[in-house]
Amino acid sequence: MTKKKTAELYPTLNNCLVRGSCSDFYLQNYKDGIEYSLNNEEVNFFHDLNGKNNIQKLSKKYKIEAKEIKDFINNFKGSGLIKLLKKKNETINFPSLNKSPSLNEVQIELTGNCNLWCKHCYGRKDFEKISKNQITKEQLFSCLDQMKDMNVARIIISGGEAFLYKELPSVIERIAQKKIHIGGIFTNGTIIRNDIFRSLKKHNITTTFLVSLDGPNAAIHDYIRGNGNFNKSIDFIKKTISDGFRVTVNTVAMKPNIKKLPAMRYFLENLGVSRWRISVPREQGEVVANKDLIIPDWDDIFKAYKRILLGVLANKGKMKIQLSSLFKTEFLENGRYYLYNNDNGCCEYKRNSLVLEANGNILSCPASLNLPLGNIKNNSLKKIWYSDLTQAIKTLPIKDTKCKNCKIKKICGAGCRIMAKKLKGSYFEIDPNACPLYNFFHKEIQPILNKLKIKAVNIPQAKKYSFNKSVIERAWRR
Q1: Residue 156, phi then psi, degrees to nearest 5
Q2: C-alpha 180: how far from its chain's center?
């Protein structure tokens, strides 16, 4: 009697990929965006779960008993992150693990067109120029192919107004094919397009719609964004939530709404909003032109922020809240907030991200209008990302700015270098907007966090800065 041969099984990752680089690898579900940290021993093993290596081959390569691998995989099968194939699969090609630093996120500004004329838009005139020279869909798709090859984990979609981009469903389709998670879609919430929702549902993509809402009523919101837009945005939020998507509301603290912000929290929570992000006006574009109408006194901002914070401490509620970069509900949940070291980069928050403008320009962040790092029409995304200019900007340490001797630099990380450039004329200057904001954190919020025993944890020490700083000023001298 011949012994029956045991069927070979080929484990493969299901709807997830290994992302990141160096000591910051993680497993990401590209449908819902959930991430799982990996230690150095796990990285290559998970990357080899590609349908081409059977359990016996994995056992031999990693010197692990086949039974242990089977038990490990069976534990993961319930999570849906691993599936077992009965045949070797030669069609699955995982992107290679990138050299450090990895590009993890790209915000794609699909169009410069917008249907609103907001009094506080930071780049309306720039967006109008961009809309006259937009890249083609083919050029955009070519860039998405490059993102896949670079193992980009997340794409954020924005505009202008992204819902004006006719081909958005086909863009969603292409991103899904490239196994990149759509982390969010920015919109003013005045346009409902069912074809966009259908495209997301077709590919089982769980994403967040980031909707701009600047007041709890039509009188305030419509004064800033135009008559009738409040009701449109509220209808959009209700539909989006009812369709099973998350909604984050973005609000800019301005003169017309500043005293209504504490009450606005409950209005949004009753709508079912997942997160509320409040920021201060960015002194660019229409904000400068409408300064007297838009920019509130700092004291009014601080009063509103403190009232909201104390309200959260009294009743956390279901909706997460973010006050600029001063406070997040996660501080309470995780029991910690973060401080910068001297060697940390000023751009730590957006360390592994870029922005693709609708005209093909690559920016370090959305605020850096007219300060391009390159253009995908004549350079590859990879070449731009690993260029001296991009990496000099992303890794410039706090100690190399004029903030180096400030007592609160550990809190603010030297603020925003783009605003320093635009308001003070140099990338190495102080950011005038950051100083009052983080002094408020130091004097008012930090003592509250300390009293609650929420720990201040240092961001991991950065690698030694290895670029000539003059490359920044040379590129942006104009």
Answers
A1: -105, 130
A2: 13
Q: What is the pTM of this model?
A: 0.95
Residues in CB range of 87: below 8 A, 6 or more apart: 10
- For residue 222, give the 3-state DSSP assignment: helix
Contact 326, 440 (CB under 8 A): yes
Burial of 91 (0-12, 13-18, 19+ CB in 10 A): exposed
Ordered alpha helix ranges (H), 371-456: 381-385, 388-395, 409-412, 417-424, 434-440, 446-451
CA-to-CA separations, 337 to 321, 332, 458, in angstroms, rounded: 15, 9, 9
pLDDT tens digit string along 250-305?
999 999 999 999 999 999 999 999 999 999 998 888 999 999 999 999 999 999 99
Helix (H) or strand (E) holding 248: strand 246-252
By DSSP bridging, strand 361-363 and strand 353-356 are antiparallel
Ranges of beta strands (E only) in 22-89 are 24-29, 35-37, 82-85
CA-based nearest residue to 398, from 478, 454, 329, 458: 458
Bridge partners of residue 414, in order along the sequence: none
Residues present in the chain in total: 478
Tell me, what amino acid is at 131? S
Give the C-alpha separation, 407 to 442, whole Å: 10
Tokens of 94: 């995982």
**Backbone dihedral region for residue 100 (phi beyond 0: left; psi -120 to 50: alpha; all else: beta):** beta
DSSP lists the bridge partners of residue 250 as 212, 277
User: Which tens digit of pLDDT belongs to each residue from 420-467?
Assistant: 999 999 999 999 999 999 999 999 999 999 999 999 999 988 888 899
Looking up tokens 């959009």 gives: 236
